[in-house]
Amino acid sequence: MPKTPNPCIDVCKYKRQGHCIGCSMTKPQKSMFKRLKRDDHRAAFVDMLTAQQDRLGQYSAWNLAYAKKCKKKGSALPHSLRECDLD
């Protein structure tokens, strides 16, 4: 099974108090994800990011974009997205 893809969806505009308007990551979080090698750590990071998005709000489009990215790369959806309505 391919590893969990990067949660970045190539928007990269930091206009929400230092958080990207596409994925909600901060610049330090983006750097941190790149350093994660174990897939269970990468999946846990995406679960944490999903919780962060829920707390911050305004990131509902990310779920679908990231699900498409996972499908394209042949990767399973992280736990936090398996229960989401992606249609």
Percentage beta strand: 5-15%
Spatial order of strands in the largest sheet: 1-2
Poorly predicted spans: none
Q: Main sheet? A: 2 strands, antiparallel
Per DSSP, the total helix count is 4
Mean pLDDT across all amino acids: 90
Structural class: mainly alpha
Series of secondary-structure elements, N-terminal to C-terminal: EEHHHH
Q: What general form does the structure show?
A: globular
The total beta strand count reads 2
Helical fraction equals 40-55%
The radius of gyration over CA amounts to: 12 Å
Q: How many structural units, i.e. domains?
A: 1
- Could you give the distance between the termini? 24 Å
The assembly state of the depicted protein chains is single chain
Structural write-up:
This protein is mainly alpha-helical. The protein contains four helices and two strands, in the order ββαααα. A two-stranded antiparallel ribbon has the order 1-2. A hairpin with a 2-residue loop joins strand 1 and strand 2. The chain starts with 13 loop residues before the first strand and ends in a 5-residue tail after the last helix. The mean pLDDT is 90. This is DUF1289 domain-containing protein. It comes from Ascidiaceihabitans donghaensis.
